[in-house]
Structure formats: C-alpha cells, structure tokens
Structures
1.
Amino acid sequence: MKQENPLKKIHLTRRKFIGYLIGGALAIEGLWVMLRSSGRQDNTQKESVLHDAGTVDSFASNQIYPFTSGQFNLIRYKDGGFMALSTKCTHLGCIVGTNTDKSGFTCPCHSSHFDIYGEVLASPATRPLDTYPIIFKDGHVWVDIAKPIKRQKFEKEQLYYA
Ligand code: FES
C-alpha cells in the first residue's frame, strides 16, 4: 500500500489557507471600495443639530453668507431659494474659500474650483460640495449641520424655499 506523504498534505492545506486568506482580504477591500465610492450615507439615524442662521428676510438674493462656526456657506439664489453648502472640500477635506468675485469656491490645498451651486469646475475634486438640510421655522432659517448630504450633481430640487 502506498503511503501518502504527510508533508505534501500539510503544504496543500497551508496553500489553500493562504489562498482563502488573500481571497477574503480582497473581497473585504472590494466591498469597502464599493461602499465608499457609491457615496451612500445614512443620516436618518443621526440626531439633528440645528444651527439658527437668522431670519429669512435678513438674506438678500444672489449672496453668499459664510458661517464658519457651522462650517457651511448659506447661499440665497436669484429666485429666492436657499442652499447650505459644506465648506469641506470633497477631495481631501480642506476648507474651501469663497472667491472674491462671489462666483463660487476655491480650495487652497489643491485648487479645486466649485461653482455657486457647489459643482466641480476644476479637479482634483470629483463631486460637488455636500449640502445640509434646511428647515424654515418661526421665520428663521435653520441648517441641520449633523446631516451632510453627498450628491453627484446639482439638481433644482436641492434648493429650499421659505
Ligand atoms: S483638498 Fe481640496 S483640492 Fe484637495
């Protein structure tokens, strides 16, 4: 009767084990990359943190109002709609500055440019600035700074009207 080499059996088992280990690691990394790139975000479970920006009437149209304490810019557009844009650059998180001509925002770190709706005009950023939900209550504009909203592009539905 032929004897099986016990070392060969151990070698194959070890090889399989390493294969499974590498396969598992790649699967986990792939899942992580997929979730990260999908931009999915579940804000529904988070507690709201409402920032009182001021009375609705105190905001003129076609203006940018910086709120450094809340880390957002409140913009009131020509048609009276509001949007609260995060100041955090979507590239690597630096704080964007408002262009001197008020045309949009520029990141000081790697020069990404964003228009007045937060859309990317120049890379390396690849997606628009996040927005925050806005609530109108008692004549005031309240910005929920606990629930940033990731988006792929600007859509008119992202504007809030009093
Ligand atoms: S962090 Fe803003 S462009 Fe890199």
2.
Amino acid sequence: MTDRVRAYLAGATALPAIVAPMFLVSSPALVLATCAEGLIGSFPAHATRSREDFEAWLVEIEAGLKREAETAAGKVAPYAVNLVTHETNARMAGDLELCIRYRVPIVLTSKSAPRDVVARVHDYGGVVLHDIATRRHAEKALASGVDGLILVSQGAGGHTGSISPFGLMNEIRAIYDGPIVLAGGIMTGRDILAAETMGADFAYLGTRFIATPESIASQAYKAALIETDASGLFYSAAVDGAPVNWLAKSLIAAGADLDVLRVTPPGKVLSSAEVGKRWVDVWSAGHGVGLVRGIEPAREICRQLKAEYAAARQAMAARLAG
Ligand SMILES: Cc1cc2nc3c(=O)[nH]c(=O)nc-3n(C[C@H](O)[C@H](O)[C@H](O)COP(=O)(O)O)c2cc1C
C-alpha cells in the first residue's frame, strides 16, 4: 500500500509539492492553477459556505482539470480536499459523501484519527493523508489506516506545530517508513529538496501562495504579508484555541493587547471583541513570510519553484561530486 501510494503521488506530479489547504485563502482558481503546473492543489471543505457551495467548487475543479488535461504539455496533478474529521464538525458526514460521489483523489484529514473516513475513501480508490504535530498524533493516525502523514512542524502558517521540522521528522521516521509530507516555512524549490533530504516524500506549502491573484485572501492581508518578515509574527493559542502564528500588526490593528495575549493562560481563548475576528481581521502566516515580496500569479510561483528545485538538485549533485 505504502509503495503504491508513494508511486502514485510521485508519478502524478511534476514537483514533490502540495499547495496546502487554507481557510479563506484557497479557491478553485488557485487549485486549478497549481494542478495545471503539476503540483497538487487543495482546499478545505469547510472554507465553502455550505454543502451546495462545496459541490459547486468540486464541479468547477473537475471541469477545469478536464479542460487542462486536454491541452496541457506537462503533467496535470490531482487535487485534494481537507476534511476536519472531528465530531464538532457538523458538516463532516455530508462533505464526506460529496468526496465519495466526486471520487476526490486525495483527502487531507485533520484533528481526529479518521478510521471510518479512511475506509470509505479507500473504497473508491482515494488516498488519505493526515495532519499531525506530535508522535502521539502520528501513532493514532497510523492505527486508523491512513496512507501517509503530513508533519506540521514549528513555523507553519495556520494551526501550527511546535516541534522543529528536524525533531519531528526524526521522531516520525523512526516509527514509520511510509509517505511523509513536511510542512512549516517551506517557500522555495531548494527548501523542497531540503525536505526530501530530511526524509520527506513531499513538501506542503501554504504561505507561499497567499499573495496570489487566485487566492481569495483580502487585498489588505496580501499587502500585510508583503511588508512582514518572520519577526513580525506573534505566536498564540489564545486567539483560536490552537497555536497559530499571527501577523502581529493585524492583531494590534484589530485592538488586541499583545501583553494580555502573552500572559493568557493555556486553554483560555479571548473573544473576537478582544482580539478581532480571527482569520478575517487577524491574519496568519508561516515563518517563511519574509520571502513574500509581491503579488505573483500562482502559475508563476509554481514555475519558479520547479526551476529552483532543478537548480538546487544540480548544485547539490555538483557539491556531492566535488
Ligand atoms: C491562512 C491559513 C489558513 C489555513 N487553513 C487551513 C485549513 O483550513 N485546513 C488545514 O488543514 N490547514 C490550514 N492551514 C495550514 C496549511 O494547510 C499548511 O499546513 C501551512 O500553511 C504550511 O505552512 P506554511 O504556511 O509555512 O507553508 C492554513 C494556513 C494558513 C496560512
């Protein structure tokens, strides 16, 4: 199984990279642009307003990929949908039915270990990759039969892990030799090669794709990313309940007091009146944010990543030979 999934992912893509699902950022246009360049594109089902909207996105993506496949010179990669497999997600059952009906090629599960979801996705031949941030999460996910793990390390955008990518990768590789996707601050083609060198099969890139015309992030969010570097991020679990790297300026502009946030005890979540409307007025980015220096079309970024990756491989081969 492991080898089949690994071979499928490698064979279906032009670069070992997944453009990660991002709430209020991902869009059908972003998925189509990245898949057209041979990178796996994705979006969270919960980013759509309703089940009907989710289905409309699936229809648009399926039709767009079909059109691309008829004309593309290179590989058109499959797409992925993020499902929050947690009992608090009231839409889970209906969204899963739609994934099954449309035979979504790759399902990215997050939160709870998804035994039932895995069985249903496997029934139609789909692949399940599960988000983890610790070894305990990984063990639970593997026991539920997932096809691969997404290691969300320190420095990721969105809900982040707190363990260094080296530490997390080494811990998980010690217990698992199947497909691993590494996330956290990955921004360049050279970073993707570095992730492979560390033992990953694929890299997961979110922040690199927020400031694109295809993303549905607001213009203000995109502009804020362009002027922020990693030192402008503020790590807190008190805004959303889970740890997130936030743009400090967006928190301040929304009226948050960073000193209050710093001393908020674990488990306490401040109200939106105190910290602004999370994800809408206060924005997240990964530690790679300093490389975002303009709004660039997603296809251009993909091409740049592929060129950087090829150059990094050549440079590394020369270095090893020398
Ligand atoms: C604004 C934003 C929203 C996100 N929303 C989701 C989400 O809805 N579901 C999910 O699985 N991951 C979400 N993520 C996390 C990404 O899928 C991915 O793990 C992360 O962006 C990787 O780190 P990077 O941003 O440093 O590349 C989000 C990330 C960002 C920046």
